[in-house]
Design a protein that fits this description.
Length: 149
């Protein structure tokens, strides 16, 4: 049974990487949304563990952290010229300080990789990791996300 869980986790991680690679070529609002949903799903899986809603599962944590790290690496490339206009426009602030935007994504990726290298051993450790990663996400959203009602 454990081998099946590991195999499933590896398969999911691989498919996630393929999905990220495909989305990275698009540079559309839909591609950006899909990537953010991947990060949200990964964070949600970790949150369920941290809150005790799901049992601690090292493989699930690894898959989630890998998803966050890999997605953060390709996310800044989704903001192609022309995506700052239209009804699904990205925030113009992204282009005003693109170096900072990219650096924030790189920090999220690096922090996820650090946590992955020192994998939390329990739900409390997953919760601590989420505080760090969530701080990265929140800071970027505060500065660059267009708030909708």
């Amino acid at each position: 049974m454990r081998v099946r869980a590991i195999t499933a986790a590896v398969l999911i991680a691989g498919l996630g990487a393929v999905g990220v690679a495909i989305a990275a070529e698009e540079g559309t609002h839909e591609a950006r949304s899909a990537l953010m949903k991947k990060v949200g799903g990964a964070a949600g899986a970790m949150t369920a563990i941290a809150k005790g809603e799901k049992p601690y599962d090292a493989e699930a944590v690894k898959v989630a952290l890998t998803t966050i790290s890999e997605t953060a690496k390709v996310f800044p490339d989704q903001f192609k010229p022309g995506t700052e206009t239209g009804d699904k426009a990205a925030s113009p602030k992204i282009w005003e300080d693109h170096a900072d935007f990219k650096a924030r994504a790189e920090k999220l990726s690096a922090d996820a990789e650090k946590v992955l290298a020192q994998l939390p051993a329990d739900a409390a450790g997953v919760g601590g990791a989420l505080k760090t990663l969530g701080g990265n996400c929140g800071g970027c959203h505060e500065k660059y996300r267009i708030k909708t009602e």
